[in-house]
Each structure stands twice: as C-alpha cells, then as structure tokens.
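#onboarding

Welcome to the new folks! Below is a worked example of what a typical request in this channel looks like: someone posts a single protein sequence, and someone else replies with the predicted structure as tokens. Don't worry about understanding the tokens yet, we'll cover that in week two.

Example request:
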Amino acid sequence: MPAVRSRRRSGLWSNAGVFVRVWEYEVPGDRAVAFITAYAADGAWCELFGRTAGFLGTELYRDAGRADRFLTIDRWQNEEDWQSFLRAFGAAYESLDAQLEGLAATERSLFEGSS
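Example response:
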C-alpha cells in the first residue's frame, strides 16, 4: 500500500486554541456598502476590538449565491481575551451595536467556541 502523505505544511497559520465567533447577516442591497464599511477588517468593529490584547482579526464573507447574505468570523487568542474585552469595553460594544442597528435585516449567531 502506498504511503499516505500529510497535507499539513510547516509554517502555515494554525487555528489551534483560537476562540471564534461566527455571525450570519441578511443585508438589503441599499445598506450593503454601509454594512461592509462597518464590518470589514478595517471597519468600526475591528477598530473597537483592536483596543485590547488578544484580538486576531475579523473576516467578512459575502455569499456567492445570495448577495444579501454575509458571514463574519471574529478571532481571538482565546475565550478569556474575548471576555476581557467585554469587561473593559462592554459599554462601547453595546453603543456601537445600537449605532449600527438596522444595517442588517436579520442577524444570528451561528457559532462561538474554540478548536
């Protein structure tokens, strides 16, 4: 039987232990630009999250088959870093959430956890 080669390459980034939060949004076309501006890697959420240690970044994805559907993946070193952020910036988090209310017609949390 032939040897099975590992597809793992050294030097690649690993998700090991990373805490992620995944959200799904439905965004009407007339609000898509404002939504992308706020939720992109250089948007308002990343600016707020970046005020504390442990934030690794946010990824924004737009569905290829449904232009009104988006996913965000927020990555933290670990869950404690996320909780520390909430303790330090909870009021600012709530304020930004209220400010951006209405950009998405619907939003729901799909996953929150670690690898």
